[in-house]
Here is the input.
Amino acid sequence: MIERTPEQHSEKMKKKQAAHDKIMATKTQEKGLLIVHTGKGKGKTTAALGMVVRAIGHGRKVGVVQFVKGAMTTGEKTVFDAFPDNVEFKPMGEGFTWNTQDRSRDIALAREAWDEVKRMIADPAYDMVLADELNIVLRYDYLPVEEVLEAVTARSAMKHVLITGRNAPDALIEAADLVTEMTLVKHPFRSGVKAQPGIEF
Amino acid sequence: MIERTPEQHSEKMKKKQAAHDKIMATKTQEKGLLIVHTGKGKGKTTAALGMVVRAIGHGRKVGVVQFVKGAMTTGEKTVFDAFPDNVEFKPMGEGFTWNTQDRSRDIALAREAWDEVKRMIADPAYDMVLADELNIVLRYDYLPVEEVLEAVTARSAMKHVLITGRNAPDALIEAADLVTEMTLVKHPFRSGVKAQPGIEF
Here is the structure.
């Protein structure tokens, strides 16, 4: 860390704020964003959930499709249930086997979940659509990335689409407006602590 | 990316799941975690907000203290308001000037906000406490990190404490159970898009 006096700190903060204000004044465009949360760290689904909550709080309508069981569960469900007009939650990850023998079944399930996402993207009633853990399904080739790119590219100008999951395909990152990689620095499982309500689910 | 056949994919996924289940079976300890979200990317506050929502959904009581104005705003406020028994939200970031002339005022404000956090950490009624953007205040030496470490170390065994903000001090990362660094890959401000409800606030 560079050592600075308190005065230098404050001077730097003021300059940064002024520069930030100047830059922000030039940002006039509003548009629906394609947002990707990827990386091996925690917080991909959780940060998307935070955005969903913000949108709900602004009275927007959000569609949530869950591709992997357990990524979102009872905790957020209770909160979603308090805003029935603002959230449609489709937990579609239940039936996946990730098994060679049942590959065709998994592909059918992936397609079923994706159809829900596509419907929500195409329906003007939804301001934001979250395809939670869609990247996993893409990684396993249960769905061609081209089809996802086609749907998000064709979306209406103000619609936000959030896609989460590790190993986001390069083509998706390329197409996205906002990409955050969550990097694991330290994880409690390593020291014998189990998954807990409010933290893991 | 390593090329794999679908069969290799599935085989790998099954092995990973089995290994994961085996590891999880050995994780029996439940404890309150010290969680830090840092890095220059987006999602630090949003992911913490997602954890707050999960905890609320499980009927837990959460205290939220906001150190920097605007990091959390009307979007989440509306959702918090729907669960008045579960969330106490203290937006304390309003008065900060980040100005040399008013340094003593900012220090007083930081102390006032920190006192709220300390009270929530010490009060058994709160299951989770979020000190949003506390790292900024630490970075500007408005509060000694030692005092933060002392309070989180003395907390009761089951209490979760979440601290967000870029430039988390090394000593805090050292003390934490779970640290995620949010890395910016791509940001829409760079291409002329302004902050939008549901995304930025």
